[in-house]
Amino acid sequence: MKVNLMNLLILLSFFFLQGCDNEDSITINNTAEFREYILEEMDIQNIPALSVLIFDENKILNEDHTGKSNINQNISLQANHLFLLASVSKVITATALMQLYEDKRFSLDDNISDYLSFEVRNPNYSENITFRMLLTHTSGIADGSALDDQYYYGEDSPVGLGFFLENYLVANGSFYDATENFHDFAPGTDYGYSNIGNALIGLLVEEISGLDFNTYCKQNIFNPLGMTETFWRLDEISQTIVQPYNYDRGYEEIQHYTFTDYPNGGLRSTGRDLYKFLTAYLNNGASNNHQLLNQNTIDEMLTLQIPSINDTMGLHIYRLNAANELWGHDGGEQGVATIMAFNPTTKVGAIVLSNQGDSDLEEILIEAYKLGLTLQ
Description:
Blueprint: H1 5-24, H2 31-45, E1 49-56, E2 60-70, E3 75-76, E4 83-84, H3 89-102, H4 131-135, E5 151-153, H5 161-169, H6 195-209, H7 213-225, E6 245-247, E7 251-253, E8 257-259, E9 268-269, H8 271-282, E10 286-287, E11 290-291, H9 295-301, E12 318-321, E13 326-333, E14 336-343, E15 348-354, H10 362-375
Antiparallel strand pairs: 1-2, 1-15, 2-3, 4-9, 5-8, 6-7, 10-11, 12-13, 13-14, 14-15
């Protein structure tokens, strides 16, 4: 039989690619195989400590806490050791604001300046900045270089959140830069991830509730849910904090730190405490016999808000993986990488926390979720 050379090449390429796919694909059948996979990933990615917790709406399905919380002190990771959550913190901050939304203290499309003691406006545009814009990263508020000087090592930031944000966002403020602090697009017309925008959400919680943001979270989220191992401030922590590391031909230890715009990434917690928080999103808003949010609010948060601009953005929570319909948030800071997500239909989720800043955790999250489906 005469075979066309081009067709033969295409056929051979197909079988080659299929072979590569089969070789690279991951099949994890049980918790023992998952642990082997975790250990391999830790070795490949130079991750000192990794905490993985898999759950459904009713219980923890599997958890694994592996490695060293502190290499030099030879401290093995335990379930109650605290990780810096980085931007995973943003979901907690958004939840605080959405509680006030449920109390009808504001509407999502209200001008945020009406709720602050100062006006926030992009100097190049006249459009108001709304709550919905902050929650979808479309406000046009940018992260300028002034943030680089707001890290404090070994102590909590001595700079007040409100003082910093006012001086960052208002002309003639000591941290103000019209070019660096704002994107060049009209509010609501484009997407620009904004740590400052999230910190402003924390300040809005303070202004609307009349409580310090840390106090508000304790009274309305942490204490009611039984999150006894979750803290915004270093000076409130007595237990072991997992040591952050960077890796470059060796581990570089980073002193524990805070930053002034802390609501966007400064929370420290454990996988078990985050489980208590996320199960509310899978149980009609309730966890630990406490109604954290109403289901209607959760549905709104898990609705794509700006599909023509960004096809992953809900209200301060992302559809991280469309193939598995995983909603959540990831985070990265100096010496840490984190990710958490859940499927609102299967009601299975996973939390992955690490203490190495360059860790890539998305694949681990997906494999953890898939294992959760078999364990449910």
